[in-house]
Write a structure and sequence with these properties.
Blueprint lengths: L1 E5 L9 E7 L6 E2 L4 E6 L4 E5 L4 E6 L6 E3 L3 E6 L31 H13 L6 H10 L17 H9 L6 H10 L17 H9 L1 H4 L33 H16 L2 E9 L1 H18 L5 H15 L5 E4 L2 E4 L5 E3 L1 E3 L2 E3 L2 E2 L7 H16 L13 E5 L18 E5 L3 E7 L2 E15 L5 H16 L7
Parallel strand pairs: 12-16, 16-17
Antiparallel strand pairs: 1-8, 2-4, 2-7, 3-6, 4-5, 6-8, 9-19, 10-11, 12-15, 13-14, 17-19, 18-19
Helix pairs in contact: 2-3, 4-5, 9-10, 9-11
């Protein structure tokens, strides 16, 4: 028999992935645990391994295509010449595993009676799990074709309908729920046809046009490969589709800028003791770590301690409720060839400097090589972005939504300063804290920034 090769869920928030490359060809022998293909989410490129030994008999989703998670992308057989079962060469996106359990061996008397009532009375008959899935995903059941007994709508029908429409951003889902808008009736204008908050609001304002059963959502445009220089319109060096990681960055930055109420506060900090401490720790820890401790490692430790002192800066807005989070997961913005990525150090407040340093180094390396782990690019609670290496003194960072704030760090440089009535040379750095004024006021945010400033100026407070 043939065994399905499923596109796994590469992270808790991943809904679809693109097949980048098949490392095995049809007919090749494969061992359990051997890499079959690589898949790209909106954050990273990851290896997908074979779950059983056999032969790759059929590739159903070629490289370059994007499909929902749990889609059957290929088939494996136990022997090289084992015939494929009839229909085995065709695979559609797989429904949630539990959906298959909904289909009874034969229609029951009750289901036949329901179907008759539906035909005669124009009513919809939906299984409990299908109704629950439709409510959760914002699917309009009147637009779903039932494939259950006598036309009953079952969960796999809801998931199939969901897979046929553009995905929605978390904010769009929240707004749709508040406005009572069915997401599958909304045309997405975001990257890869993704439904944005603005799309939902437009649909709510013009229900007769945006949600009419006669007018189906327009399919998301499929970006073409970047044209050769000769094909590019006059006046342009190149044309780059706003897709993939770049598209996700554009979408999230736009959401952050339009949803939050950002305010940036800046402080100049004397980092002389901070620089001295780092030099001492470099010499002490390098033999054990195998690399030099970085300023970012110390900043993560400082920020984690400050977030414990001021929990209102480590929060989320859920509807009309502000939740102060128990976990402190600090993200660090990393510049990569694919765009800006923000892996985070889990439980940074509970880790020592050496452990933080190892985590940061490993995460940054994975981010730069496209090998980030599925869940280390989501779930952060606070972000640090450091542009000091590029001679930037101060800037206004954009909040990594849905976090409350982000800390921007400029370069550390020697400047003349007055100390005890004398002019001396001190190491100074500018800090820029952007925060969401909906959740935090200016003075509380300033107190948080002051705490970070104090720990940089007197780093022995880290031991307090």
């Amino acid at each position: 028999m043939a065994y399905d090769i499923l596109l796994p869920k590469l992270g808790q928030t991943v809904e679809e992935s693109r097949i980048v490359e098949w490392l095995k060809a049809e007919g090749d022998a494969v061992d359990r645990g051997e890499v079959l293909f690589t898949a790209e989410t909106d954050k990273a490129v990851l290896d997908v391994e074979a779950t059983r030994k056999g032969y790759l008999r059929k590739i159903l989703v070629p490289a370059g295509e994007t499909v929902p998670v749990l889609t059957v992308v290929g088939l494996i057989t136990r022997t090289e010449d084992e015939p494929l079962e009839e229909g085995g060469a065709v695979a559609a996106p797989a429904a949630a595993p539990q959906a298959a359990a909904e289909v009874p061996a034969a229609p029951t008397a009750a289901s036949e009676r329901e179907a008759a009532e539906a035909t005669e009375g124009g009513r919809l008959f939906v299984s409990p799990r299908a109704r629950k899935a439709a409510e959760k995903e914002g699917v309009d059941l009147t637009r779903v074709s039932g494939t259950g007994p006598n036309g009953r709508i079952v969960e796999r029908d809801v998931m199939a309908r969901l897979a046929s429409v553009p995905k929605a951003t978390p904010v769009a889902r929240h707004v749709a729920e508040q406005l009572g808008v069915a997401l599958d009736a909304v045309t997405g204008t975001g990257p890869r046809g993704r439904i944005t908050k603005a799309d939902v609001q437009t649909a709510a304002r013009t229900p007769s046009e945006a949600q009419s059963p006669v007018k189906a959502p327009a399919p998301a445009p499929v970006p073409e490969a970047a044209p050769a220089p000769a094909q590019v319109a006059a006046g342009y060096l190149a044309e780059v589709p706003l897709t993939g990681v770049r598209g996700v960055i554009a979408q999230r930055m736009h959401e952050s800028h339009t949803i939050t109420a950002p305010v940036t506060e800046t402080m100049e900090v004397d980092a002389t003791a901070f620089v001295a401490l780092r030099e001492q720790l470099k010499a002490l820890l390098a033999p054990t770590l195998g690399f030099n401790l970085a300023y970012n490692d110390l900043l993560i430790k400082i920020a984690a301690q400050a977030l414990r002192q001021f929990p209102y800066m480590n929060a989320r807005l859920d509807g009309d409720v502000i939740h102060h989070l128990d976990e402190v997961h600090i993200g660090l913005a990393v510049d990569t060839d694919r765009g800006l990525l923000v892996p985070h150090v889990v439980d940074a407040d509970k880790k020592g400097l050496s452990e933080i340093a190892r985590d940061v180094r490993a995460m940054a390396e994975r981010a730069k090589t496209g090998k980030s782990l599925p869940d280390e690019l989501s779930g952060g609670t606070f972000t640090i972005t450091n542009l000091g290496a590029y001679d930037v003194d101060a800037f206004t960072p954009i909040i990594n939504f849905p976090e409350v704030a982000i800390l921007g760090v400029g370069r550390i440089k020697p400047v003349p300063a007055v100390v005890d009535g004398e002019i001396v040379i001190r190491q100074h750095v500018w800090l820029s804290l952007t925060f969401d004024h909906r959740l935090v006021d200016g003075a509380p945010a300033a107190r948080f920034l002051q705490a970070i400033k104090q720990m940089i100026e007197e780093p022995l407070l880290l031991l307090a």
